[in-house]
């Protein structure tokens, strides 16, 4: 077979920046060094060669009210590759009472056309002995080390504190990592009802019904439960200072807590919901909703200082037609926005170009950190010999104005419409296959493979050692009860 | 009728310290000034004359597993008066499904022998239309403006977030104040089960099962719910930095949140649970449990800086015999400790004498602040003409060593046993009646009356104005959906 | 002599709201009660009767570059009374090397036309044995218990940490309270020079040269020095979250720290400096400068929660002509804005009417709290028999649009120009003299008297007890050095 | 020449743990892979192969009152190697008025016997045009990118805020990093004098004279100055929560601030100063002093969460005889303790073995992070082909009890005396030379070389971009002054 060689680029990883060429063989990095020759050459002159992005949070072809989120593993992974992302992690969502194994099969069936690698988080949507037992199978046999918990979506996906504690304890035993969608579902449901009763039925009421306090509270609660159960915890879509504060407060006590801002929350704000155009506002409906600008500063600082670890998209795209289900009742607007194609260019433009982040931090928060958290580093998220050749050749001089008309996603709009970005892939490679070349999509349906993720990361093991060391000790007493006053 | 005159003392209130005599007529302060004459004179030379203490948190004759807490309104109010406290606020606890009006009648029946004035908080132990409706009656007709919510005691008193939000909203409408016992009951129950399963069945496991994090989380949650519902909130028995931090964080955003440390948590620590004597440890079992010394500093600072408002006792006394119900299973140890007689002397000794608090702050946190919060100021908690003559003539030179043998409480031990206090009542007066004189108890059974408390404090009204001003506003749109990208 | 009776009003104090009439005799409150009769009656129907405002921070007739701040004790106290303020505390500023006693005489000479009562803070502008010694005289003989320290104005008023520590220690000994203008003068001076060098010579550069971080740092430093010296500390013109955060952080450790926001910082923001009109911007030049809106929320919350204690003005008015001294060099724009007449109406309108503050809190932060801090309560800041009849009869239905044309201040503009306020004095009384009646000024030149303030407040004494209790203890060793490894 | 091969070990870096052998040639890592053969083999079976430690903070042969700190570059680097540390960074300290270039020459002269690599920080001990100019030479020609500033040691090394701001600005221009010893020197000097005056002359008074508040204040101030000057800042020997809090607060705003706890502060506490043996206490005298245990938790959590970056020693060893200079006056006790040999074993034992840190974090905080901060990564702090073969083969089963008798350091005691550590070097290699083998020291005098460090790290460049983007902008005005009110 022939090699591919990436020539004349500057390699940028989470901790290094240096000039070198890369030889790829069999989809894997075979050699890194100067002046490599032989095989197909990809010219990276003037470019940064970085690990392809990993998006740890997508919902492709997710069932919703008799239909599905509009991007499936075909269009979704194409969008990912177009934007320099080479792996997505989706969520398998069992129905109440459904076996997790069944659910996983259902979800796995959707992936046949995936153009890049993928993995799954498993959701805990109900609790019982079967769930308790299947968690072990999921971790040991199915290559999944993360379990998602929804504190919102009452009556649907939501679990209560009792179930969370049970599940988190099980995660601690298995060396798995709980993920949490942190919003207080009880309060959201009540506020939704109140707003509707008052005639507040538009998309802005979606934001009113789940303010930052509601997210901050749930984040704080999830962290406490994880601390008591003795496991790390990962908060998805951290959108606001309140939630970030809870994460920081835990981390400053040494707790192993991770936070994941979305590119949407970093760059868009809640003024979108006040747009006079219902469609415009409804297209931005997601949970948590966009926040005021002050929250953006908090999130950016978190990425720079390390209190937040990764930038995701929660890509869950619905067409305008689907969004219109919620006319007259904002609660029926399907929750979700797109972003898979835009995450890297937006983050580069508003993060690296402004000096908020270094290039190395860009790599850390788009791939390396999550690869470590998900225990797939350095197979993914690294530029090392032996690592998968999931790479993006990043051209900092290549720009565009984001527009729905030019996107890979199946939907008819883009929440970043009109944003000018500078910094785009010259090439995106998925396990060595050139999926994108100067804007041309050359991805292959079905090229993507499931990425298996083992449990027991180093932090989880360390935490478990510490928890054992500091566990409650019984006071030994003789003759109980003993003496007097 | 004859006057009583308190002569030659120094009056100390929450904001004044000055020399003056006080004339009392018909149980009410009739005159304050120099050289008052006529009537029975009480010599206050060398003493501070202060408003009698108000203990906002007692459980007298509370039903428990077929028996009752050991101090009833007789011994309880005697203990109160002996220690300079002239009013107690107890809790009416409806059974699940029981009418609040019925419960109130049951509780009211216990008070016939009360020697000092009293009032009731009403507990929300279940939710439904009947509760919603009766809350108005309780507030408008029954003179009760506070509703207690238990976030712990799962399967018994505990309410969930949904119920709390409903009740808090109702409080907002009625101008009532929700009180919260803040511990995460789900997590406590699970941790209790785990500890028992591991053989940790002693009193120390009680503390292990409800660490500060569990209280801090619930406090944080209660505050968020109150903020969303638009009412102030009062956290009972704030025992630790975690809970205090949540309170401070809310207050620094302008939220109307109150915290109540107990004299026990201010002066006793969790080393008590490690006593080799099971009885010793079990007698200290209460919820939240005693904490490590670092938490005490936090609470004292909160009193001095105003982030915590009042010192209570949660007086709920059980005899050693009752405590022994829990041999072999700490979950069955009745929760509660005494303190009614010791609150003021202990706080004076460890607060005022050390310089942590001024005398004025002592008055503020033992009576005035809670009188304002409960909307009974200046009838109670003040030394003003027209105010009830609930007074303590405090002798800073009078000391003793606390011991169970000499106490009014019906139980056979005292958690402060052996503490040396300096500062005791020379006289305690309840509406002018001299109930204590130099250690001699002269209280009258049945002298105590119910104190009616109207709703709508100034902070509650201000908050409601602010919430209205900043309420969600509907975006007016024409032709939905409209246009666009 | 004849009485004055305020009839039919609602008395509002820092902790009470009730209907009663007030009889005034000899400038003092003689009686409070229903249906008082006899003497001149002032109709307070529909009004709130409150303690007159105390402005703890003014600079009347302050020397500046060969001229003086435009309002003297005549126009300044008239402005005060017009706005419901009945006492001002000004600053005596010794020149370097000048005796404090001389300085006090100079300042005292300015007060002959004062229409309301006043007092002085003494500034520590240099250090030496003479200053050390005179501080005692100032406190014991001159009725001044506060010493001001400037951490900014390098080369002029500024003192360094060494001098501050020395002075604070002396304050601790004398029971006096240090006040601090907290901005890092070294850094300000350097940034000013840098901005000028870059051509940034306009009024906006004034704000650029002293950002919130510079104030927060100095506040934090002053607090630490006070803590080490063992005295309370009062931070003047707390303008931003950074400074407020330092205050909160100290208070939550139990430190006795006070913060004073100005009405300007509560209601005006830094966008004023970007006005295209140089005059407009220059007229708003003061130190600290106005801040962004986010800081206002912090300050309002501090007033509601008690982490900030009083609202002042730092009234230091310069005419447009005076301001123009700084054309071409913002460093020469005289620092200062007016506000004496506007403080109460602005605070009522944006504080009480919005629900951010209760009426009682309004009284607390405009008079009562500072009266306690300055140890002149209840002579001032109270409505009690025996207190000075410094009163404002506040008409919540009386409104106006603030405009320079109608003000008492001698200057030709008003920084609140155009603000609509609702809530104004119907009457202002200074020691019983009706100085304002429905907008008509009836004040008497020379009516004002110096208010003597004794040292040793209760918090200062308590702190000193605590510091003694926790003072360093020597380790007793025999045979030094003793033994081996 | 021949290769050295490290066989059968597990490589542990800051982000990877994997089995591989390492081939070393010419002092550099030549190959990493399985089953390497040829050359001298070092058996790493059962061991972790990690980058050798870098100690960024030592004072070898530092002049002190006519004598020198007891460990020079000979014994000091031997101690380092014995404990697995393969590089030290020392401080060149110019006398007041002395050229930095002269000082550097003096310091460089001491290094001829160094057994491992070293570098220098340059101290700013005075300010002037010469210093300003020489800073550029130091950075561009001398391979030094860090400048140390002392906020304490008044009258000796201390610089004031003005000088710090000037120097920090210069650092910003040059892309250099300021380091700060953060204690308020003015306050320390005053408190020292006060303690002496009160007869507190023992070593415990050293601790009394510089409490955590004094360090926290200075840290906060240094950070503000760096923020204003536009450069990152590195706080040396962060010993307490107060200082750590200031660092966290800055980082949560996105500031580029680094903190360096010492192994002493992580594991020893201030009870040492209360030892009845004067020698015992005096030997522990260093600045900042040891703190109470609560501070240790803060520091450990900072290492785990990333708010603190590296563990150093501030190794500055004085013999008992030298320490006794301070009998009768604690101010004369030479400040400093040892730790070079003990840093890694102590951190492993109390950090990794307890589960507070992962092994990867251990590597990060002992070498990799500081290598990045000092801009010498991956030459140092990495296990990569091309990196210097500064390696430690760590045997987790090898233990000892620390005792002065067995140490390399020249002094006659050890502050860790009696501590049992588990985890020691089997081999330490400095650029391939086996300097330690199973406890036997085989180091070579003079083997060590100066490590040149270029300026302009990625964070410094990013910060500078951000500061430029957000720099003050002049408001353009025409016709100044313009219009009216
Ligand atoms: Zn979600
Ligand atoms: Zn999602
Ligand atoms: Zn309770
Ligand atoms: Zn209770
Ligand atoms: Zn000032
Ligand atoms: Zn001023
Ligand atoms: Zn140092
Ligand atoms: Zn040092």
UniProtKB/TrEMBL annotation, chains A, B, C, D:
The lineage of its organism: Bacteria, Pseudomonadati, Pseudomonadota, Alphaproteobacteria, Hyphomicrobiales. Residues 48-420 form the Amidohydrolase-related domain. This is Dihydropyrimidinase. It comes from the Bacteria. Keywords: Hydrolase, Metal-binding. Gene3D superfamilies: Metal-dependent hydrolases, Urease, subunit C, domain 1. The keyword Phosphoprotein does not apply. Its cofactor is Zn(2+). It comes from Xaviernesmea rhizosphaerae. Pfam families: Amidohydro_1. Belongs to the metallo-dependent hydrolases superfamily. Hydantoinase/dihydropyrimidinase family.
């Amino acid at each position: 077979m022939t090699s591919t060689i990436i020539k004349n680029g500057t390699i940028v990883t989470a901790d290094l920046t240096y000039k070198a060429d890369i030889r790829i063989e069999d989809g894997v990095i075979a050699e890194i060094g100067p002046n490599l020759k032989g095989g197909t050459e990809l010219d990276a002159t003037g470019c940064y060669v970085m690990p392809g992005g990993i998006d740890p949070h997508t919902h492709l072809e997710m069932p919703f009210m008799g239909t599905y989120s509009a991007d499936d593993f075909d269009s979704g992974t194409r969008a990912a590759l177009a934007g320099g992302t080479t792996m997505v992690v989706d969520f398998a969502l069992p129905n109440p009472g459904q076996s997790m194994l069944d659910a996983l099969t259902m979800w796995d069936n959707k992936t046949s056309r995936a153009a890049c690698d993928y993995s799954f988080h498993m959701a805990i949507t109900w609790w019982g002995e079967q769930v308790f037992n299947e968690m072990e199978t999921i971790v040991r046999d199915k290559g999944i080390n993360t379990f998602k918990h929804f504190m919102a979506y009452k009556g649907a996906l939501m679990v209560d504190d009792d179930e969370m504690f049970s599940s988190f304890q099980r995660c601690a035993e298995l060396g798995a990592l709980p993920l949490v969608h942190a919003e207080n579902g009880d309060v959201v449901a009540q506020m939704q009802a109140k707003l509707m009763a008052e005639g507040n039925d538009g998309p802005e009421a979606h934001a009113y019904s789940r303010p930052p306090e509601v997210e901050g509270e749930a984040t704080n609660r999830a962290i406490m439960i994880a601390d008591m159960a003795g496991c790390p915890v990962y908060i998805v879509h951290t959108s606001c200072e309140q939630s970030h504060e809870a994460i920081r407060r835990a981390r400053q006590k040494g707790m192993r807590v991770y936070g994941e801002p979305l590119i949407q929350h970093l760059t868009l704000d809640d003024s979108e919901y006040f747009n006079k155009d219902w469609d415009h506002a409804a297209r931005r409906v997601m949970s948590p909703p966009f926040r005021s600008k002050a929250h953006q500063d908090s999130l950016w600082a978190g990425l720079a200082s390390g209190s937040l670890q990764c930038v995701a998209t929660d890509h869950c795209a619905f067409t305008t037609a689907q969004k219109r289900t919620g006319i007259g009742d904002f609660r029926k607007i399907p929750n979700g926005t797109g972003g898979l194609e835009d995450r890297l260019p937006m983050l580069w433009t508003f993060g690296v170009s402004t000096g908020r982040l270094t290039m190395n931090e860009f790599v850390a928060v788009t791939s390396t950190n999550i690869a470590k958290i998900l225990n797939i580093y350095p197979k993914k998220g690294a530029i090392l010999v032996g690592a998968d050749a999931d790479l993006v050749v990043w051209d900092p001089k290549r720009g565009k104005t984001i527009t729905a008309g030019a996107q890979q996603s199946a939907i008819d709009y883009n929440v970043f419409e009109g944003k000018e970005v500078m910094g785009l892939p010259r090439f995106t490679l998925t396990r060595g296959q050139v999926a994108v070349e100067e804007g041309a999509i050359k991805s292959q349906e079905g090229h993507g493979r499931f990425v298996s993720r083992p449990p027991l990361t180093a932090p989880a093991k360390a935490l478990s050692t510490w928890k054992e060391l500091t566990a409650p000790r019984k006071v030994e007493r003789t003759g109980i009860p003993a003496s007097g006053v």
